[in-house]
Amino acid sequence: MNKKFRIFATCDIGEAFSRLRERGYDLEVYPQPQAPPKSLIIEKVRSGVDGLVTTLRDPIDAEVFEAGKDTLKVVAQIAVGFDNINRADANRYKVPFTHTADVLTEATAEFAFLMLGMLARQMWSAEHLTRESQWGFWHPYLPFLGDEITGKTIAIIGTGRIGLAMIKKCAGFDMNMLCYDPAYENHDYINAIQELMDLRHTRGISKEKTWIKYVPFETALRNSDFVSVHVPLLRPGESSTPTLHLFNETTLKLMKPTAFLGNTSRGPVVDEKALARALREKWIGGAALDVYEKEPLPADSPLRDPSIADRCRLMPHFASAARITRLDPDPNKGMAGRCVQGLIDVLESNYGGDVTKMPYVVNKEAFGKT
Ligand code: NAD
């Protein structure tokens, strides 16, 4: 019989929690939809919980780990990004933390693609026209036109899990692709996509020949009609190629004045002041955003400027927000299922208790054999 593990969850994740209850875990779920104050997380950890279930809204750092010294055994995050968890602190206190990679990959890439499509084809403005009874006639080019996606060139910034899934979706729309990733170039995948593109062309499915290749960052920005960002948030000191404000005045100015930027990664990857200026002054064609430097988006954000509303789509950190992806209790389908499985693996010493073998643990480096 399991020891009765105590868990504090900073939010509800639905049916997946019944797996913990069935196993006799003592589970407390923060009842509000908003994030709990950090002081409450610390209080719960200090009271001796074995595991924490967290979301990207919860700051998990040395203060939290210190409160759980000798008692906190695992932090299970329901998200793939973990920039809210201080990895160095987790390692110092030797607390493994888990994430929910892979199960949200397709949903996030799909949303990134659709968001860019909505922006380029002016769907938001077009629906307003209809709803507000401003649709007075069919006309070849009035009151405005959108831009096609099919046949255009897209820059894929970051070719990890979601970047590669985005490539697959773009290939279906006969797009050319310029890929950039300073740490991970998956040439096998890119070559397979090129073969697929060539086959579509030779069999008459695609009219034009299309192509995909890795290029330097600046080349990708200068030559693309769309730019889609799929990097983790990495602050200076966390990587030799940090992504904080990767898109700033200088790099936004490299983009074509007609190009569209899509960001479903993390807000601080884009300098929002610079982006608002880029939209106002038309350095770029438009932007579709799902994530922000501060979330929820503040009322006084320059991105809310009505004069750029037709060129700036604003989504509420929604890219993985699809039913199966978020809540399926199966660890191979849903973030909720994978989050719970990550927690169980650590607490119940699955994989012979070897943290380095547990698939959902992120900071394996802290548990290598010495
Ligand atoms: P991943 O780790 O598989 O891929 C990230 C890729 O970015 C890696 O290949 C890495 O080498 C690359 N990279 C690192 N620094 C870079 C740089 N300076 N320039 C270009 N590329 C760089 O991660 P993933 O599963 O593809 O997820 C990517 C990110 O997307 C997550 O970290 C998360 O922040 C975000 N995300 C957001 C949502 C949402 O709801 N909006 C959903 C899922 C993921």
Summarize the structure.
This protein has 370 residues and is an alpha/beta fold.
CATH architecture descriptor of the largest domain: 3-Layer(aba) Sandwich
**What does the overall shape look like?**
globular
Instruction: State the oligomer.
Output: single chain
Largest sheet: 7 strands, parallel
SSE series: EHEHEHEHEHHEHEHEHEHEHEEHH
CATH superfamily of the largest domain: NAD(P)-binding Rossmann-like Domain
Strand content: 5-15%
Helix percentage: 25-40%
Number of helices: 13
Order of neighbouring strands in the sheet with most strands: 8-7-6-9-10-11-12
Radius of gyration over C-alpha positions, nearest whole angstrom: 22 Å
Write down the CATH topology of the largest domain. Rossmann fold
* N-to-C CA distance: 31 Å
Number of strand segments: 12
Give average pLDDT, whole number.
97
Q: What does the model show?
A:
- With 370 residues, the chain is α/β, with parallel strands linked by helices.
- It has two domains: 6-102 and 323-367, NAD(P)-binding Rossmann-like Domain (Rossmann fold, 3-Layer(aba) Sandwich), CATH 3.40.50; 105-314, Rossmann fold, CATH 3.40.50.
- Helices cover 31% and strands 12% of the residues.
- The protein has 13 helices and twelve strands.
- Helix 3 (62-67) links the parallel strand 3 (51-54) and strand 4.
- Helix 5 (105-120) packs across helix 7 (161-171) and helix 7 runs parallel beside helix 8 (187-202).
- Residues 80-81, 101, 104-105, 108, 157-163, 180-184, 230-234, 239, 241, 243, 246, 264-266, 290-291, 317, 319-320 line the site of nicotinamide-adenine-dinucleotide (NAD).
